[in-house]
User: What shape does this take?
Amino acid sequence: MENFDSAFAIVTGLVKDFKENEKRYLSPEYQEAEVRRDFIDKFFEALGWDVYHSKQKNPYEQEVKVEKGVSIGKAQKRADYSFCISPNYRDTKFYVEAKKPSKNLYNPDYYFQAIRYGWNANTPIVILTDFEEFHIIDSRFKPDIRTALDRQIERYHYSEYLDKEKLSRIYYLLSREAVENNSIDKRAAELPKPRGKALQKGLIKGGYQSIDESFLEELDEIRLMLAKIFKKNNPGLTSEELTEATQRTIDRLVFMRFLEDKLIEGEHFVNEFGKRNSVWKDFITTSKRLDVKYNGVVFKNHPIIDSPTFKETDDSNFRLICERLSYENTPYDFNIIPIHILGSIYERFLGKIIHATDKQVRIEEKLEVRKAGGVYYTVLYIVRYIVVNTIGKIIEGKTPKEISKLRFIDISCGSGSFLIIIFDTLLHYIGKWYQEHPEQAKKDGCIFKEGQWVLSLKQKREILLNNIYGVDIDSQAVEVTQLSLFLKLLEDETTATANEMQVLFKEKILPDLSKNIVCGNSLIGTDIYDGNMFPTVEERKINAMNFEDVFPEIMKNGGFDAIVGNPPYVRKDTIDNINKIYFEKIYFSSFKQYDIYVLFLEKALKLLKDEGLVSYIVSNKFLISDYGKNIRKYILDNSEIKIVVDVSYDNVFKDASIYPLILVLKRQTKSELRDNNYIFYSDNMKDINGIKFVTQRQSSFLKDDYSFSLTSIGKKWVDKVDNNKILLGDICQITRGFRPPPEYLINKNNSTEKYLIGKDLKTSYRFCWSGNKVKYLENKIAESKSISIFKQPKILFRDISLKFNACYDEDGFLCLKTIYFCYLKLNKGISLKFLSGVLNCKLINKYFETKFSIAHIGGGYLRFRKQFVEKIPIKEINFQNEIEKQSHDKIVQFVDQMLEAKKQLQTITTDKDKTYYERRCESIDRQIDQLVYELYGLTEEEIKIVEGKNNGS
Assistant: This one.
């Protein structure tokens, strides 16, 4: 409250000053630069922001960026202010666009301009102000001048700043302390949600569409248009050639627009195409001119589109493409779109290819993307976490000279998202080091700018060439990665600094990354070609590569210092036989029904220097699955497991049924160091800067055939359950129902056997039969079982459910395949009703959810497969021990009471009776839970954890 009172006092003074000279301030002569200096700067200083940079002097570490209004040629001006929170100086939280007070702010052009800034940066709100008025605008919607004014959220006149309640609304949204506490996102969550599919897809006027969704859609449409006109005029082009030609054309257009909006070039190329020759000829001429200046793969002569035999495109259609991307017409501002968002767009863009026939051109998903179920782009905070805990740890305390000898790689780099953040991390660290060592900064060629030493473009190039490497099997991905790194390299450059490379150093602006970012198969070496065992087409498709040949110096020196990434997720059964044979010959981890991400883990450890780091985000399935046995052994035999963070609940991969974790491993050849290593584990990543870890010694996993569950690290109550060596599968036979042909499910007189379907098991203990019958002929029904199996007492549970809902049956019901059931096979005196109580209790449900993270399938649902359920530890009852015997018998009695109460619930007709029996069931549940806790030896504190009443572990 003290900070707000201080802000209110300052703003009150500003209001008084404005009021006293209102006539002057509202005159056309009073300019925007003046109102910013006299009022707007001071207003945001009052809100706690360091607008004048009196504290944050380093130009690369300032939370408030103030645009000085410099423009070049016809280039659009930038947002007047952008605000971020340390240490993420590139993640804009909100923009402020200023106008002079004589202007009417409620203007669609001004609103459109402001929304464009916010939308391109993926920020939900933007501010438009002249101090006289203060407009808060919703920038979640794609800029549309027709609906721009509809995006107003709140609007204030300067006289209202004197109202504490109204000023507090601004303060607790936009003050530094509020923004640091996530006020922007919280306010955005309160805004009206876009409704309907048409709105979501942006199909109606003013429809909601995020920057990445919109630009991806734009690129897809442009790609299809280009492919059709290229094919029409050059019918001999294959699908692969069309894919490559359209990709290079799009990359050039995007790069040109980037140079324009960043003010690195002083002219608007794309807007001018067609004013000298045809649109296409002007495009090619400009590409050649920029190649001379910039170098790099983007403008490099292309054998298709730059060939003299390539026929000009349909100029009217190519003109339309250029017009929709030109600065005058496009909603996209490449000065503002974060490079990582461009990367996320391209990652999904790369998941598709052009398929062409003589009659048709269409876009379709790549085969490997279809097999994997989609493209899983890694969200920024995950990428940053991985890079900080690998590259960040390695460079800590080192000099720029020492760092120049380190080598970092992503061996499945995609669009280059991890490499962009590595580059950004290196630039930030080295730039800061030079600020702290000014004498060395001057010697090494830094530039003195605004009172600080900053990295020159030449130094940034050297960092990129020295430290950053990438491999991808897809040539288009390699091209996009290079493009992304070039954009990152030029992010803070100007016309002057870019031209300096040519004038002073007589070098092209962009480095040649062909030796750093290469196209090849990271998993398959050229030994697959020994004996010419495959035809040429297959050889090209495999794209085999030896790291020793491609990166000879690095491999001679022991390998890479760090490897990071998000390796592909592709199951064995979708892999070509040729690859499969090779994998099973070369990789120890190619075991049973493996997924190739485990091969990438093994390969990464092989490519590292001793004590090098690898960090991947991978599916958690390898922890307990059968196919994960060998990779678990390989990891434990060859590395120290440093960090494991379970992010399976964070929706890391949108719309994908994948439950991932972040793994940080240190290659370690000394067994005594591995065994004494402590693993840091967390299952909560809500606050990336304050993750709470628990630890466990790595040697504790060097047993039980290398099976381990990291999800149980530090959870003593899990250990207590695990200490019971008898498993449910030891006591019971677990099987599933049958799958009959439809004609046998007709309820006729000769259909005598009652059967259950999944929805009959809605609640625990007692099912509710829907009236279904079947004519059960064992030799006619798929997966048929002897009917006698169904006729004995059994416990039934659904294959997919929110919890066990184990139901007891002694009436001989049959069931369909969506239901599992178990019956006693070992007589240890344990009652099946006792097991019903144990399986339905809170402890076992929590244990299953915690232990078998692989069983999670989204929306809170779990898959109760036999391979999981049979591993549930059961307390072995010593019937000679009176206390244990009494507990067993009490649970059986309570289950009998529960079955009767549930039976009554199915037949009662009054609300009063329903309430009575529901409360009765709740009471019985609590008593069974307590008895099970006592049997498994849990403390009161551990019971609170299981029941979610304590955040401990």
